[in-house]
Amino acid sequence: MDDNTINITIIDREEVEHPIEVPTDMNLNVMETAKASDLPVEGTCGGMALCASCHCYIISDHELPPASDDEEDMLDQAFFVEENSRLGCQIKIVDNINGLIVKLAPVD
Amino acid sequence: MIKTDILIVGAGPVGLFTVFEAGLLKLKCHLIDILPQVGGQLSEIYPKKPIYDIPGYPSVLAGDLVDNLMEQIAPFKPTFTLGEKADEIVQIDKKMYQMTTDKGTVIQAPVIAIAGGLGCFTPRKPPIEGIEIYEDKGIDYMVRDPEKYRDKTLVIAGGGDSALDWTIELCDIAKKIILVHRRTSFRGALDSVDKVMALAQSGKIDLITEAQAIGLKGEGSLSHVTLKTKQETKDIEADYFIPLFGLTPKLGPIAEWGLNINRGAIEVNTEDYSTNVPGIYAIGDINTYLGKLKLILCGFHEGTLMVQSAFKYIYPDQKLSFKYTTVSGVNAFE
Lengths: 108, 334
Prior knowledge:
The structure holds two protein chains of two kinds. By secondary structure, chain A is α+β, with helices and mostly antiparallel strands.
């Protein structure tokens, strides 16, 4: 692994694990990473925390920045929201989330 | 029946601006949109967010851009069918299509421009197993007729404005309302939040927070909603379950119109944004082609080229001379 990449794992809705190497210097987030890997994430609003189509569960025990009010509000529109629910678009790809494991939430 | 030159499906920014470019060529437009207001995603998803890549505007709020577009196209007197879904297209003559909406409005036009963005905004359905079985048998995704719920027991789910507003509105009509929300706080308008909290305190409604509906039960029609709270999973008696979780775009009937669809988008020829069906074009976020970018400014360009082609399609024998607006001005329709 070179200096500017980290590894994360996205588990899809069929329980298949997708290990992904992601650059940390492109201002990416988890939603964009999933889309770029052709995983079934809509990302309808483009990352403004204004839809809930990138709802996912944080499986690993990483300490993430807490969800903003906007994100919490939007999670109200998602289904099967759990304690570990987040919007993928609000999780930035940065060095200290190396090893992050997320699982895509069910879609309607 | 409505007759027009170009029927635009979708009244988002791209559909709206296309009215202007069509108007310069003296083509009339009628727009149809499933949302009750114009502006598409800009009005529905992010009216208060700034956009920074509209040429000439260092920054413009999405809602203001919609207002400006409406002002810009006003001289060309567009007509609108709002709150209705473009449902069915039939070809009734060599160069004439007839579209019928889900509410029975009929529109005829030689050219159809699909500016449908992400598709039809439809209510978000909770992915509860077997939910389809109870649709129209106890589950409503929107409230159409409050009287339907007179003296009934309702479970309303959601934490936004529509869940709060309908709880307030229906609390004097229904026998009992149970409002279910996943958090203890609400994101709706402060006034509505206060009202709902007061209703809960006075016992007029049952407010169950930190809970989600996860199952449905009933023989033939709905009888119980299964709720999962932090402490327990329990069945609650209900005549109706009304999940109010906002709107989400779906391709909808557009997929049935015989167009070449590639991963949820309509394939077009970049010469004029025509589809595989003569007289039907697709512009903006709904189309796809090599190098496609889903940007409003690209959609403006697509609509502009599209109407040139539409003119030649409708009037193959007429010559079209290109004029700058600076030279010719904007000649409003009568």
